[in-house]
Design a protein that fits this description.
single chain, about 300 residues, mainly alpha, about 0% strand
């Protein structure tokens, strides 16, 4: 049911965008694809995944759940592919945590309890990336005056401010109940965060790795812009990209499809650019990310048995 709902949400959002822009307008935004820019975008995803796998390795290692470099890279590719085809955008991450936890069950010496460290490692590693993205989003807001005006107008039109105020009591209540019922789990996670993210020995490595990964996301997006022949100055487009990426975190669709394109259309229009071009770039970005995740599909085919990825 969840898969069908998210698939329907993606299709509905994309259909609405197409009707708003008109298909002819959107197709006109696609010039002849430039293969060199496509190659550049795909090439940039390789160090992106490798650096993400390294970040996961150092996080898991700090928690007593070590990973081999080859194992981490293969599992990260698998997770990236699953995130592209499964609802919510996090099922691939849950899968790599589960597979790692299964292997950790044989290690009675792990603390916290066997398997918990594997889940904590993925949660912390992903949180590190989201925090870096948020920092880049705020930096983009500070460096682009037109973006500040545009986002203020979008929030005023959508009424997000009052909406959050209305929802705040309910969210606080739910959070309070979750905290009360899961105090022990939250305490263990807090300890893990201090050890694997905030500790002096690892903090700067986490921050730098996560910022480089976000920079690679932005770089791939800008390569996609040039790939389809759109000549918007990169300095003008770059501050918009982190906001589009942030919108993809909304767990409404599959792999951000529809949500990403809607955010791109609104942002491009808000700063005086052609919204059809924003949607075209977003679609090409989605296709490139899907293509870049295909090594994960090949790994799944090669290792049919769960957990069969060889250690380095």
């Amino acid at each position: 049911m969840t898969l069908l709902f998210r698939l329907a949400a993606s299709l509905a959002l994309l259909t609405a965008i197409l009707l708003w822009l008109e298909p002819q307008t959107l197709l006109a935004a696609f010039a002849a694809p430039e293969p060199l820019w496509l190659a550049a975008a795909l090439t940039l995803t390789i160090p992106q995944v490798a650096l993400s796998a390294w970040r996961w390795r150092i996080t898991a290692g700090r928690l007593g759940a070590p990973l081999g470099s080859g194992e981490a890279l293969c599992e990260y590719y698998v997770a990236t592919f699953l995130n592209q085809i499964l609802p919510g955008g996090v099922m691939g991450d849950a899968t790599r945590a589960w597979r790692h936890a299964r292997r950790q069950q044989t290690r009675a010496s792990t603390t916290p309890p066997p398997g918990a460290a594997a889940w904590h490692a993925v949660i912390i590693e992903r949180a590190s990336g989201q925090l870096a993205l948020l920092l880049v989003v705020l930096a983009a807001l500070a460096l682009a005056p037109e973006l500040r005006v545009a986002t203020a107008e979008l929030l005023a039109v959508s009424g997000h401010g009052p909406g959050w105020i209305t929802l705040a009591p309910m969210l606080l209540t739910i959070g309070g109940i979750a905290w009360w019922r899961g105090r022990a789990h939250i305490h263990r996670l807090r300890v893990a965060v201090r050890e694997a993210l905030l500790a002096r020995e690892v903090f700067m490595r986490q921050v730098l790795a996560s910022l480089l990964i976000v920079a690679s996301y932005v770089g791939v997006y800008l390569c996609c812009m040039r790939m389809i022949g759109i000549d918007t100055p990169m300095a003008q487009a770059a501050p918009l990209v982190p906001w589009v990426l942030l919108a993809m975190a909304i767990p409404l669709s599959i792999a951000g499809w529809g949500v990403r394109e809607g955010a791109a259309a609104l942002l491009w229009q808000a700063v005086g650019l052609d919204p059809a071009e924003g949607v075209a770039i977003s679609i090409s970005y989605g296709v490139v990310i899907l293509l870049s995740s295909l090594p994960g599909a090949l790994i799944l085919l090669h290792h049919a048995v769960p957990g069969a990825v060889r250690r380095s």
